[in-house]
Amino acid sequence: MTASIIVVANAESTDREIIASGIRAFNESRAGWSQASPLAVLLKDESGQTVGGLWGRTSFGWLFVELLFVPEALRGRGYGLRVLEAAEHTAVARNCRAVWLDTYDFQAVPFYVRLGYREFGRLEDYPLGHTRHFLRKDL
Known about the structure:
Layout: H1 13-31, E1 37-44, E2 50-59, E3 62-69, H2 79-93, E4 98-104, H3 109-114, E5 118-124, E6 131-138
Parallel strand pairs: 3-4
Antiparallel strand pairs: 1-2, 2-3, 4-6, 5-6
């Protein structure tokens, strides 16, 4: 087999799925079945439109929170807490033992720490002058 290398700015979703399924198959051949399953907890406005929420997945007994967004107008009213708790409860029901996520120093580090998350890594100067924090919590 031979292959060519092509750099593209806008690959197709099918391209991503080929890469993801390949790495998933390799990982599962080494670590066992991942039980990978997407997870979304949505915040809806009065008209039923999604205005925020959480996007993530469970796999290998962990919840990974990829995205968590609460609109400015809803912040400070417990929505972030309830969204995250709903995801954590779902993760426990899926037999997950822990959760991990990342956030920036200008986002929600104190919020997560108050909820029992602890830092396990950081990436300095990403973006320049800021820090990306990697946090985890046992469930």
